[in-house]
Amino acid sequence: MKYQATVNGRTFEIEINADGQILVDDEPRSIDFRELREGELYSLLVDHLSYEAVVEERDDLYHVLMAGDLYEVKVTDERSRRLASAFMALGDASGEVAIRAPMPGLIVRMPIQEGQAVAKGDTVVILESMKMENELKAPRDGTIHRVSVRAGDSVEQNKVLVTIT
């Protein structure tokens, strides 16, 4: 699984492999990671060097205290980045906006119908992909102009699902 970690403003690409190896910006690292106190204190061996870290989660950030230094860390996975980029490409606050499938999947539910008013952030489509349900939300206030799919439909990436005016 690939992740992107932003630590105090610097971004790293991290790929986790099953064999105790990770890649950090394509550089291999040996790692052993253990939780010492649930959700709070961790022990890390990185390239045979030992570290302890206190981790506090706040909103979508982690505050990590390690060796006397405090780090602010934001972690996103591939799926989250793909969903976010799909919504950033939707356009401005006027005109027609097409909500597209950010990945192939199965339409689970359509909690909207044509002609319905929606507010920014309202769920308009629930798409199942990789055994996870993804709520696709309205990027702005508007009216559902066209619904191009229905529950039970399989869709390919970039298929237009709903149009909002």
The fold-level CATH name of the largest domain is Glycoprotein, Type 4 Pilin
**How far is the N terminus from the C terminus?**
37 Å
Low-confidence stretches: none
**Structural class, from helix and strand content?**
mainly beta
Mean pLDDT: 86
Q: Strand order, main sheet: write it out.
A: 1-2-3-4-5-6-7-8
Q: Which sequence of SSEs, written as H and E, runs from N to C? A: EEEEEEEEHEEEEEEEE
Going by CATH, the architecture of the largest domain would be 2-Layer Sandwich
The tally of domains stands at 2
Largest sheet: 8 strands, antiparallel, barrel
User: Using only CA atoms, what is the Rg?
Assistant: 20 Å
Q: Helix tally?
A: 1
Number of strands: 16
Estimate the global geometry from the Cα principal axes: elongated
Strand content: over 45%
**Percent helix among the residues?**
under 10%
CATH class of the largest domain: Alpha Beta
Give short descriptive properties of this protein.
OB fold (Dihydrolipoamide Acetyltransferase, E2P); eight-stranded antiparallel beta barrel; Glycoprotein, Type 4 Pilin; 2 domains; mainly beta; 165 residues; 1 helix; elongated
